[in-house]
Design goal:
The protein has about 140 residues and is an alpha+beta fold. It has 4 helices and 3 strands; from the N terminus they run βαβαβαα.
């Protein structure tokens, strides 16, 4: 039984991806440009496979037979267009208040973590010394 979404002419491999997110992103970009694309294989959702696993199958993006060069051209034009964006000139608008709150609380959390990392060993030694002093006092009495 054949999959009705797969073209009659069959499919050809376009490229192998190291993770599901990259493979599905490429599929989505191709489909948005009018090119049917399919992802086959197994892989962890966000986990990168080794280069070796990706070369020997991994997750494979496939396109209709005879359209590989067209698909490569689509991906190249998308890459070219993206590389021309001057992100310093893009106005993304003001930060919503709920995002500003998260960013601010994240900065506070980061500062606390830095303090704990810096003070942690010192506090650990103080606690250890206090425990040893307590044991000495108990043994001396």
């Amino acid at each position: 039984m054949s999959d009705p979404s797969v073209p009659e002419e069959g499919l050809e491999p376009l490229l192998n991806c190291r993770n599901e997110i990259a493979a599905q992103e490429i599929r989505s970009l191709l489909e948005a440009a009018g090119m049917p694309a399919f992802v086959f294989g197994k892989g962890g959702l966000g986990l990168n496979m080794s280069d070796e696993a990706a070369r020997h199958g991994g997750l494979q993006v496939q396109v209709p037979a005879g359209r590989v060069e067209e698909a490569r051209g689509i991906l190249q034009s998308i890459e070219d267009e993206a590389s021309e964006i001057d992100w310093d000139e893009v106005d993304v608008g003001d930060m919503p208040p709920e995002v500003a709150d998260i960013v601010e609380s994240s900065a506070v959390t980061h500062a606390i973590r830095r303090f704990v990392v810096a003070a942690g060993p010192f506090l650990g030694i103080l606690i250890l010394l206090a425990a040893v002093a307590g044991i000495v006092i108990i043994l001396a009495t």
